[in-house]
Amino acid sequence: MGRIHLLDPFTVEQIRAGEVVERPASVVKELVENAIDAGARTIRVRIAGGGIDEVVVEDDGEGMSPEDAQLAVQRHATSKLTRSEELFALATLGFRGEALASIAAVAHFELLTRVPDALEGVRVKVSGVTLTEASPAAAPVGTTVTVRHLFFNTQPRRAFLKSPTAEGSQIEDVLIGLALSRPEIRFVFTWDQRVVFDAVPQETMVARVRAVLGKEWAQDLIVLPEEGEDTGEQGIGLSGVIAPPERHKNTRTGQYFFVNRRLVKSQPLSFALSRGYGELLPAGRFPLGVLSLTVPPHTVDVNVHPTKREVKFQDERAVLHVLVQRVRGALDQANLFKVAVLPALSLPGSSPGEVPLPDPADYPIRRKSGPPPAEPMLRVVPKPPAQAPIISAVPQSAPQPVLWQRPDGTEFHIVGQSHGLFVLAEVEGELWVVDQHAAHERVMYEQVLTTLHQRQGETQPLLLPLTFDLVPTARAALEEMHEYLTRLGFDIRPFGGNTYQVQATPPYFRPADTPDLIRELAQARAESRSENSVEAKLEDLAARIACKVKSVKAGQTLTPEAMKALLSSLLACQSPFVCPHGRPTMVRLPVHHLAAQFDRR
Ligand code: ADP
Ligand code: MG
């Protein structure tokens, strides 16, 4: 007897079901997508036990006739597609005709539905692969699908599920995504009898973001500006919102992508979003964003994954380019630098209107003789309550002030330097406190990047060439980046075996730092995942060099000329307000805020 035989139908079903139904969240996604396709105005989702015990999806869509309801639970039964050519011009989310059959194969499945012109509806029950009931039943117009005891007949699958809390969270995340994709539909999500969100129909995605992601997320989000004509040409449109860079997370969970209103997971899109933030984001952190792409339907394949969660673009580069540029543009326009807000000092133990008596100890008198007091000349007393910093970054709830528009030739006046750390300057009705080190890093970063693009770096030969050894991975990194390093003014040559020699570096670079730089590049290369565009590499290189240059150090006294030069260069930068690592370069104190502190108006 041969060893090859056909699998029995039950096993075949279970294998295929496994492709579509991975976990409770996939059940919810398929059922809600069906409800959306059915034209529902309201979709209610209830789950119990993380969706493992029960998922109910109720819609007020077009419903199904009794015949259709029985067909619907069979594999490759779909009303959405009749010919394969239509696959690429699809307006519906479903088309494979597999979801209901797959879910029914691995759970206790019940469907209750009625079309508007029928007097009664139908109840269809399936368990495993057997239809156990199809009978007339009273039902509201629309469809309610109940899925209980997921994987009751597929124990190995069940064993792979996480805790009900974890599975429930995944459901919540999928529902947030789906709700974001259709602000016009009401979504009600109930988890173990508790309403998690009830998002009424909204006009815009931004409003929907507030409803399902919460006020905290929504208060300072950055809306992508309307697109220019250039992107419209390729037929690639992008809209959505992103969060300011400092709201980064350590996972991609705050990211939602839609392609032609279909919720998708996409590493390339996620990488492109990070690229848009570029150096605003600390390494290993992920920005938040809700981004909706529209592309001509025939340029995207939605049928590359059984759960339709991935898509493939005909011209992925073009799509990613649009995403990176638009995100970057939005961040450029947004106000990414800090404006200090001075809270009105509320003094402990004093009621409003009561002026506390000054404590002489707060105003040490410097005697002519004797050492100067170790205490600062003026202390802020009394301390504001609850460790509130006197100067804090704008609280998240404060309205964003109208900010500086990066005009040519902003007027500024250097006031001086403070503590060897900060440059103080008057700029357009504000006092700026500039972190000299961070500012210099920003300036250097942009200079290096410009040099990389213009290929005309200055070079300074070394009197004594420097030799060093490199491990093979670092040699590979050096080879890869050699052209760019040369553009910057480095002259690094092989010197036999593992040894290399630096003969020249850019004037601002300490030659002794060269081997370190190359080792860092090798490390970055090893760690970088699929995000490897040339532009990304150049930015990374520039940030690393800016970090190593003979930079203005904290604690270094600056001449007025040096401060002036630093501030002029900073103001000429593309992104003057953050250092290459995403930290602010300055804090701004509007004079009227200061005046208010003195009860002046
Ligand atoms: P697909 O969505 O790929 O067509 P499904 O297995 O998800 O496949 O659904 C099969 C068919 O059942 C759909 O094509 C649709 O006609 C019908 N159907 C499923 N869910 C609903 C619903 N909530 N309301 C109306 N019709 C539905
Ligand atoms: Mg479907």
Q: What does the main sheet amount to?
A: 8 strands, mixed
Strand content: 15-25%
Please tell me what the overall shape is: elongated
Hetero ligands? adenosine-5'-diphosphate, magnesium ion
Calculate the terminal CA-CA distance, rounded to whole Å.
Answer: 98 Å
* Low-confidence parts: 344-407
**What is the number of beta strands?**
23
Question: Largest beta sheet: what is the strand line-up?
Answer: 5-4-3-6-2-1-7-8
Helix count equals 17
Helix content: 25-40%
| Arithmetic mean pLDDT | 81
Rg, Cα atoms, Å: 31 Å
Briefly note the structural class of the backbone. Answer: alpha+beta
Summed up:
It contains 17 helices and 23 strands. With 601 residues, the chain is α+β, with helices and mostly antiparallel strands.
Architecture overview:
The protein has 601 residues and is of the alpha+beta class. Helix content is 32%, strand content 21%. The protein is built from 17 helices and 23 strands. It has helices at 9-20, 24-37, 66-72, 99-105, 155-160, 164-181, 205-213, 215-218, 229-233, 267-277, 316-333, 436-454, 472-488, 514-527, 534-548, 560-571, 591-597; strands spanning 42-48, 54-59, 108-114, 121-127, 130-137, 142-148, 186-191, 194-199, 222-223, 237-242, 255-259, 262-264, 289-294, 300-301, 312-313, 338-339, 412-418, 422-427, 430-435, 460-469, 491-494, 499-505, 586-590. α1 packs across α4 (99-105), α2 packs parallel to α6 (164-181) and α13 packs across α14 (514-527). The chain binds adenosine-5'-diphosphate and magnesium ion (MG). Residues 30, 34-35, 38, 59, 61-64, 72, 77-80, 94-101, 143 line the site of adenosine-5'-diphosphate (ADP). Magnesium ion binds at residues 30, 33-34, 94, 99.
